[in-house]
Amino acid sequence: MTQKQVNTSKAVLALEEETGRFLAAWMHVRQVVQAANFNRFHRAGLSATQFMILNVIPDEGLTLTQLARKLNLSPASLKITVDSLEDRGLVLRRKSDKDARKVDILNTKEGTRLKNTASGEFHRFMAELFTAMSGTERQGLLTGLERMVDLSPLQNGDNLQELTTPHADAAPQAKRSSRRSVAG
C-alpha cells in the first residue's frame, strides 16, 4: 500500500468515526430536548404531537396538508389531533383568505399563550446549557449546524418527506389470521 493510500484510508476512518460521534451526540441531544419538553407539554395536558402542532402553526395559519408536511405525519392521523385541540379551544379552523376551497388552522389566543409559555421555558433551559459552553464552543456548534443546513438539499425543511421513510401509518399491515389459537 502506498503512503497516499494509507493517508486516504486514515482519512476515511477518521471521517467515519466523526460521523459516528456526531450521530451519537445528536441522538443524545434529541433525548435531552424531548425530556425537557415532555414536562412542559405534559403539565399543560398536551400530547407530544399536540405540542408540536401548536409550535409549528404560523400566525397566518396553514392547511392540514401543510401541517402534515411540516411534521412529516399523515393528514388523516393529524386530523384527529387537530380536532382535539379545536375541542379544547387551542386552535380554530377558518376559510383561507387566499383560497376559499381551503381551510386554515390557526392557534387561538389560549393556544398561543400556551405555546409561548412552554417555548419561553424551553428557551431558558437551552440558554442555561449555552451559558455553560464557552463562546468558541457555541460559535463552533452554530457554524457547523448552519453549514449542515446550507449543504442539505432541503434547506428550508420543505419536502422533508422525500428523505424520510414512509409514515408508520402508511406501512403495509400484516394480514391477521381468522384462526384462533386453542389453549390445550
UniProtKB/TrEMBL annotation:
GO terms for biological process: response to stress. One of its GO terms (molecular function) is DNA-binding transcription factor activity. It holds the Pfam family MarR_2. The keyword DNA-binding applies. InterPro entries: HTH_MarR-typ (IPR000835), MarR/SlyA-like (IPR039422), WH-like_DNA-bd_sf (IPR036388), WH_DNA-bd_sf (IPR036390). Residues 1-150 form the HTH marR-type domain. This is DNA-binding MarR family transcriptional regulator. It comes from Tunturiibacter lichenicola.
